[in-house]
Amino acid sequence: MCSYIIDKVRLKGSAKGQGGWLNVDTANVYFDHPYHAPLEHALGIDFVNERDGAPERIAVELSAESARQLALAIMVALKRGAAEHGEAA
Amino acid sequence: MSYLPMKTSMVSFTGHNGDTGHAYYARPDVPNKMGGVILIHHLPGWDDWIIESARKLAHFGFACIAPHLYFRNGPGTPDDVGAKVRAAGGVPDDQFIGDTAGCMKFLRAQPESNGKVAVMGYCSGGRHAWLAGCSIDGFNAIVNCWGGGVIVDDPKELTPARPVAPIDLTSKMKAPLIGIFGNDDQRPSPDQVNRSEEVLKKLGKTYEFHRYDGAGHGFFAAERPAYRVEQANDGWQKVYAFLDNNIGPRIRA
Questions:
Q1: How many domains does chain A fold into?
Q2: Radius of gyration over alpha carbons of chain A, in Å?
Q3: A29 touches chain B (CB under 8 A)
Q4: Distance from the A87 Cα atom to the nearest Cα atom in chain B, whole angstroms
Q5: B6-247 has which CATH code?
Q6: Cβ B44–A1 below 8 Å, yes or no?
Q7: Residue B110 has pLDDT above 80, yes or no
Q8: d(CA B183, CA B211)
């Protein structure tokens, strides 16, 4: 399928691209045919800075299961961080 | 025994609003007149697979133009440009129609043209092929390979960029249509394929549908896990025969 499904997540953070570190304010999250990963469909995330016109993107294409594991790992890391550093997870 | 020589070029065409787009153009390198195919890429972009397919169509005797539908969103690699277009909600239908009409003019203006033109697409390009066949006069054949979104069951899928479900335009379809589908696909699902066929039948359109067991979405793409060799080989033969009958005769070595 070409799904047209896309979720935009507003972010505060940085990512490292070809030219070095840059601010990112948006993650475009979708599930569709990957461009590179040898999968029929993939969970894609493009990190971009829309405020600057998104001249560069930092992209990943993950299998559905990998994406679920990543999401869980993020939640676990946030929970541990909250426990050790007191930040709201 | 011999094979057709082939000529390939990057070419320009005049698209929607008079914009100049670029495209890959492959054709048999022979003095004969031949039918032309406009090959529409899928949503992720103007990728190697579409270029390979253009060459395959040329190898089997047709001139093929594969336009980069996202040329306005560059510069950049096709995948980065495709990501920008995805983030913006996809290519607008009216823009696509204008670009495709421009490609039709390009093909007919070539000295090798026999005057006949088909539009063919994969996935979202299959939807585009259906849309073009109902929106632009002058096509001789339409090839829809597993086009999802021809039928729209969720009204949320209708957007300013894609305001109409192509199935609702089918009464305007003038050229014969071939549809290639995998029965394990979910976009289009077998039920949607059946309902598309019902509309074509009810309207008295000339069409042929080929459904394949053991195949899902995109099963022609040999570099992908979805590739199904037997179904793909048979599907390609069906497409060549359909094009031979409707925009041919195809050039043979």
A1: 1
A2: 15
A3: no
A4: 32
A5: 3.40.50.1820
A6: no
A7: yes
A8: 6
A11 CB near a chain B CB, below 8 Å?
no
SS3 A78: helix
Q: Is residue A1 part of a domain?
A: no
Q: Is any Cβ of chain B less than 8 angstroms from the Cβ of A21?
A: no
Residue A28 within a domain = yes
Question: Does the distance separating the beta carbons of A33 and B123 come in below 8 Å?
Answer: yes
Q: Is A33 exposed, middle or buried (0-12, 13-18, 19+ CB in 10 A)?
A: buried
A68: in domain: yes
Alpha carbon distance B131, B112 (integer Å): 27
The answer as to whether A10 is a domain residue is yes
Query: What pLDDT is attached to residue A2?
Result: 66
Q: Given the cut 0.90, state whether the ipTM is greater than it.
A: no
**Chain A residues within 8 A of B226 when measuring between CB atoms:** 40
Q: CB–CB of B42 and A38 under 8 A?
A: no
Say whether B42 and A33 touch across the interface (CB within 8 A): yes
The answer on pLDDT for A87 being more than 70 is no
